[in-house]
Amino acid sequence: MTQLSVEFWIQIIIYAVSFGVVFGQFQAKIKYLEQKLDKHNNVIERLYKLEESTKSAHSRIDELKEDCR
After folding, report:
1. Which of 4, 10, 23, 49 has CA 20 to 30 A from 63's CA?
2. What does the pLDDT read at residue 66?
3. What is the C-alpha separation between 56 and 50, in angstroms, rounded?
4. d(Cα 55, Cα 47) in Å, to the nearest integer?
């Protein structure tokens, strides 16, 4: 009976360690995906600013064209 109990606890320990490893892998993957998302969001913000700058540059060019006429 004690051998069964020892086997049971060994299995519980193995399951706990396995769960910890898998949980750690999930955390690492989530952290990696969060970093990629931050980079993506940074690119989107920069693109938005670039679009605004381009719009204002085009309007200035149009104003200069009208002044030259």
Report:
1. 49
2. 86
3. 10
4. 12
Instruction: State the DSSP code for 69.
Output: -
pLDDT at position 5: 87
Cα dist. 1→7, 21, 30, 36, 58 in Å?
10, 31, 43, 53, 85
Instruction: Please report which residue ranges of the chain form alpha helices under DSSP H.
Output: 2-68
Structural tokens at position 45: 């913000």
Q: Which residues of 28-62 are buried (b: 16+ CB within 10 A; e: fewer)?
A: eeeeeeeeeeeeeeeeeeeeeeeeeeeeeeeeeee
pLDDT tens per residue across span 2-43: 677 888 999 999 999 999 999 999 999 999 999 999 999 999
Amino acid at 58: H
